[in-house]
Automatic annotation (TrEMBL):
PANTHER family: CYTOCHROME-RELATED, PTHR40942. The keyword NAD does not apply. This is C-type cytochrome. It holds the Pfam family Cytochrome_CBB3. Keywords: Electron transport, Heme, Iron, Metal-binding, Signal, Transport. Coiled coil: none annotated. It comes from Pseudomonas alloputida. One of its GO terms (molecular function) is heme binding.
Length: 100
């Protein structure tokens, strides 16, 4: 029994790892509620002028803002199943950054 539990414990992380979500699907599910103009301070998708100063802060800062909440943005941007990589990819997608 102990060997079985040990084996399950060793392989469980491989089965529970979440694949990165599609940035457009993620945006439509959680981000669009605020980033389509409902909140004037939330930069719109594709508005390079609004995104440029934010991107200049560095991706680590932007992901931290999303994760912890920043100004009117609620913690995790209301995406409770998003990873840091999901946030990074959706930020790049929303900003129209060539790094996507």
């Amino acid at each position: 029994m102990a060997k079985w539990l040990l084996a399950v414990g060793m392989f469980l992380p491989f089965f529970s790892a979440q694949a990165t979500q599609d940035p457009e699907v993620l945006y439509n599910r959680t981000c669009a509620a605020c980033h389509t103009g409902q909140l004037p301070q939330a930069p719109r998708r594709g508005d390079r002028a609004a995104w440029e100063p934010r991107l200049a802060q560095g991706m680590d800062v932007l992901v931290k803002h999303v994760t912890q909440g920043f100004k009117a943005m609620p913690p995790r941007g209301l995406c409770m199943d998003c990873s840091a990589e999901d946030y990074r990819l959706v930020i790049l997608w929303m900003s129209g950054s060539p790094d996507t």
